[in-house]
């Protein structure tokens, strides 16, 4: 559920995490999920299918997205779209004036390298299944259904991400410092996620124990 606190803005849950007030209702769980799936698909995977024109950096017109949204959902509104974006705990989207985009997760071809800062962390992490680990240690990490490889900025975050796909993940550590010194560009999408076009096998190792 998304609600709005007059002092702290939009939030998810029953009460504002900053001050504990209940706030004003904006979206229930069902509509939040439906709106979230639509926005994710439109900004990451099929903009042209819903009539949106996306530039090479992933931006689309906020007004055009809103037009498509309100035509599809009678209850859609600009406030509800803004609430969905600004309350997102994973920081998946960003708005810049009259434009909006997904920050990561694209399957359409986008170029984000010039938009985000270069990664500063010496190590990054990537969770895989037991069945995948040997193949990745031999051939490296490459995107499958996405434009970029999504790397976690912490061990804990990599475990959380991997558990969505496998019950017993193996966590790989990426020597980001060496990779970047060797010319592999790694950029920071948000506090949890870094992006790269690929990571060669020589920069990977298995994390034996949680740090």
Describe, in plain words, how this protein is organized in 3D.
It comes from Methanomethylovorans hollandica (strain DSM 15978 / NBRC 107637 / DMS1). With 211 residues, the protein is of the alpha+beta class. It folds into two domains: 2-102, Arc Repressor Mutant, subunit A, CATH 1.10.10; 123-206, ADP-ribosylation fold. It contains six helices and twelve strands.
Short descriptors:
211 residues; alpha+beta; Arc Repressor Mutant, subunit A; three-stranded antiparallel beta sheet; 23% strand
What's a concise summary of this model?
The protein is α+β, with helices and mostly antiparallel strands and 211 residues long. It has six helices and twelve strands.
Strand content: 15-25%
Secondary structure: number of strands = 12
**Helix/strand order, N-terminal first:** EEEHEHHEEEHEHEHEEE
* Radius of gyration (Å): 19 Å
**How many domains would you count in the coordinates?**
2
CATH class of the largest domain: Mainly Alpha
CATH topology annotation of the largest domain: Arc Repressor Mutant, subunit A
The CATH fourth-level homologous superfamily of the largest domain: RNA 2'-phosphotransferase, Tpt1/KptA family, N-terminal domain
Pfam families: PTS_2-RNA
Organism: Methanomethylovorans hollandica (strain DSM 15978 / NBRC 107637 / DMS1)
Keywords: NAD, Transferase
Function: Removes the 2'-phosphate from RNA via an intermediate in which the phosphate is ADP-ribosylated by NAD followed by a presumed transesterification to release the RNA and generate ADP-ribose 1''-2''-cyclic phosphate (APPR>P). May function as an ADP-ribosylase.
């Amino acid at each position: 559920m998304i609600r709005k606190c007059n002092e702290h803005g939009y939030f998810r849950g029953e009460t504002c995490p900053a001050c504990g007030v209940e706030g004003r209702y904006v979206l229930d769980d069902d509509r939040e999920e439906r709106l979230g799936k639509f926005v994710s698909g439109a900004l990451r995977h099929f903009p042209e299918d819903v009539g949106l024109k996306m530039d090479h950096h992933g931006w689309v017109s906020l007004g055009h997205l809103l037009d498509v949204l309100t035509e599809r959902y009678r209850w859609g509104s600009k406030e509800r779209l803004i609430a969905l974006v600004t309350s997102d705990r994973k920081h998946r989207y960003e708005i810049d004036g009259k434009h909006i985009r997904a920050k990561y997760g694209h399957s359409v071809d986008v170029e984000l390298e010039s938009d985000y800062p270069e990664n500063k962390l010496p190590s990054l992490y990537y969770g895989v299944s037991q069945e995948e680990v040997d193949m990745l240690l031999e051939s490296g990490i490459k995107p499958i259904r996405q434009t970029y490889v999504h790397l976690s900025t912490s061990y804990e975050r990599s475990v959380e991400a991997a558990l969505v796909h496998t019950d017993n993940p193996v966590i790989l550590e990426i020597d980001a410092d060496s990779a970047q010194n060797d010319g592999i560009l790694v950029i920071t999408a948000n506090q949890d996620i870094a992006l790269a076009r690929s990571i060669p096998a020589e920069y990977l190792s298995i994390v034996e124990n949680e740090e």
